């Protein structure tokens, strides 16, 4: 007996295909998690899956590797393994080292490649295929903004990793997105007074700026605060991301009349531009009767390692540094150092803290429902995580805490001891009105 | 005027690097007909020869001081370099000159890499389409990159120039400019001289040695040279290895300018292919000329005065030049007629 009574033609194949498609889709629609669950990826078994989306290849791969180490350590501590790390010093005592909401924490990883499209694709995969309840991680504000937007659309919480552009919690902020890391506005307000004390108010600055969201934001903030204190901006030149050789951009600085070079670069770009600026003798120059000065607004220990001795004496800011002596920082450095044999970077710290803050909010909310967790994080005040008393501001989901101004150390004692903290700028000095950076949080999305 | 001259120097310097990489690419294409997308990886491997040599020289005797502990509670390690512990000032001198001295390591390593690569992989793709060659060599480049990343990490590793040539020279004063107006890093001048010397050496080798004469003949007409009883394949293997050495040496000497990382080869690869195409596929003088030309144009396009008129020109100038040259003269500046014109 044949089920095909007529000869096959294009129309009958199309019709059969459409009917088959409907038939195959029907059980999926009926049993879809979207219909049976209260929110997207609601965990039903004994595990809850976190999605760690970090750069495993590309320019920030080393930073990403450190972030991943921190996340793995956070998972260990959440599940009651290891020494507990910051759970011991965290002011909230909800997490007991027995998982979150009675479920053991599992995780999946994705590679952002420091590219927005790749980062979105890996986050999407973790949400749709692996059932990740939240996404965290990233290095680069471009990536953070893109992934935050995807998480908002999908209906999961995004806990940003290293992202410093104002836009992440400014014009591109989202109700489902949260940032622990500081931003360029805070860098500007913390760094400017230190620059004034060390170099005076009569200075001419030349900016070289990475041509993407973070660079623009950094340039704008530093210009704003240095011009307010009397510095003149001679020029602000955009350089392509990953330019490699910056010599053609440094050459005009030499005889521009500027006596300060501000490098609004990060990662490999900063390593290259600073190395080459020193090669061109900029640090040995005298201009306008003053010693020529270089400023690197955003530092990281990994960048300082790449730039070697060129960082000596150069000021910048950082979110956290392993040499801090508060109980939280000491606990994290001890835990991370014993696990991996070297101190954590600021990227590792912010990512570890974000994972714990998410878990704590879920525990306090008693659910993994994104909107309940968002509500638990909004306006949450905490301490013991290494940055002093901190507030997750409800209006823009930006953390407010003390900001560190650091300087390249003249006599480092080890390959990790490259930066010294010269000032801890109090939180009150770096706070700004919630509506200053624009943007709208919009509505929370549970994904159903 | 001073900025103009400085940009000219920058362009020559950058052009030197482009020319060295493009020279190797052209040698390989001209002799073997292979489009080698792993050539940037050879540049990167050369740079990591310098890193490896420096790491070797920096091997340390590690003792612990139980009285002092690290921030994470383990005994503090006290590190002393073997080379300085046993050789004193001579050891310190060798470490200081590790970049130029590592050329001695890079030459045999790159020769070996070239031989193995050509015999082990490339030769199987001679008769395959260019698309296959590109895919396999690009894949090889990624494999090499990942190997280097797994050994050395992804963070750039600083390789300072020797103390004697660190910093910048006041070259303007020599030509009557005011002091401090035209200063240029010593090492970049060393690099420019080195690039010129390597390019001259390759040309001399091809021009004035019997081996070079046979290779040039083979580039012109491979079949006829083969009919004369000359084992041209073997010589082409040597040429591939020489091209690897040229790329490797370019990488070694570039390390003080650009702290090496595993991805540096890819950053140069695309630019170098543009250089080869602009110069003319298979033309050695074309590769050198186009390398310097594009390096200089790129530098001038980055001047603030130029960007004020044409924003973003610095990022597209070399592709713009490539488009114009290929439209006007499809075989490239000094390319041979018929090569890659179809």
Automatic annotation (TrEMBL), chain A:
Q: Where is the Leucine-binding protein domain?
A: 49-409
Keyword Kinase carried by entry: no
What keywords does the record list, in alphabetical order? Answer: Amino-acid transport, Signal, Transport
Q: Where on the tree of life does the source sit, at the highest rank? A: Bacteria
Q: Which Pfam families match?
A: Peripla_BP_6
User: Which SUPFAM superfamilies did the record assign?
Assistant: Periplasmic binding protein-like I (SSF53822)
**Which family does the entry's similarity section mention?**
Belongs to the leucine-binding protein family.
State the name under which the record lists this protein: Substrate-binding protein
This chain's source organism reads: Roseibium salinum
Automatic annotation (TrEMBL), chain B:
Q: Per its UniProt entry, which superkingdom is the organism in?
A: Bacteria
* Keywords, comma-separated and alphabetical: Amino-acid transport, Cell membrane, Membrane, Transmembrane, Transmembrane helix, Transport
Span-the-membrane segments of this chain are 15-35, 42-62, 90-113, 134-152, 189-215, 236-257, 269-296, 308-328
Q: Where in the cell is it found?
A: Cell membrane
This protein's membrane topology, according to the annotation, is: Multi-pass membrane protein
Alphabetized InterPro entries for the sequence: ABC_transp_permease (IPR001851), BCAA_transport_permease (IPR052157)
Mind telling me which PANTHER family this protein's record contains?
A: ABC TRANSPORTER ATP-BINDING PROTEIN, BRANCHED-CHAIN AMINO ACID TRANSPORT SYSTEM PERMEASE PROTEIN LIVH
Describe the family membership recorded for this protein in Swiss-Prot or TrEMBL: Belongs to the binding-protein-dependent transport system permease family. LivHM subfamily.
* Protein name as catalogued: Branched-chain amino acid ABC transporter permease
Natural source organism: Roseibium salinum
